[in-house]
Structure formats: structure tokens, C-alpha cells
Write a structure and sequence with these properties.
Elements (H helix, E strand, L loop, with lengths): L1 H8 L10 H25 L10 H24 L15 H11 L13 H5 L1
Length: 123
Amino acid sequence: MNWYLAVLKNYVGFSGRARRMEYWMFMIVNFFVYAGLLAIDRMMGHTMFDYGPGALCGLYSVVVALPWLAVVFRRLHDTDRTGLWIFIHMLPFIGSIIFFIFMLMDSTPGTNRFGPNPKTSAA
């Protein structure tokens, strides 16, 4: 939960680097929170078109959009890539696979052009 809160606190931090642990813990907690809100939306009958998200999910998505974008940029920086690599998603199917591989990659050892390695800085 600390990793999730750290990302929310650094919601406008597009510079620097983010470890894999920071990114994936944020994504896992984000998934479970969204799933819980979706269940509440469905129980309350607030779904759109009899399926999909409702008001709570929509509001939550708006709230976490900027922190998600910031942690993605920092994660890409950690692999020594510019944050603009996020646009790889525009390539159908293969773009998402490449992006997923980038998110799984280990940090660039030592200091790169985006700052010191967060693994060694935190230790």
C-alpha cells in the first residue's frame, strides 16, 4: 500500500525514475480498487448501458489518471527511455506487447540521463 500512496503523492513527478516494484504495486492496487468500485457500481445499478463502469469507476479513473501517467513516464525513464514511448500503444496489438515488455525490464544500472538508480538510492 505504501507504493500506491507514494505514486499518488508524486502525482506530478514526471522526472526521475521509478522502480518496477513501484509501478507494479501501483497497478495491482489500482486493479483491486477499481474492481471493488465496479462491484459497488453494479450493486447500486449505476452501470452504463447495462455493463461497464459506473460513476464511481469513472470518478476514480479521473483521479488516478495523472498519477498513472507520471509513474509510467518515470518507469520508462528507469529503463533509459523517454516518456514519449508511451505512444507505442498506438500500434495495434504489438505496441501493447512492447510496452508491457518495457514495464517488465530491469532498471538501467547506475545513473542514466534521468537520474540515479532508485534501487541503489533507496538502499
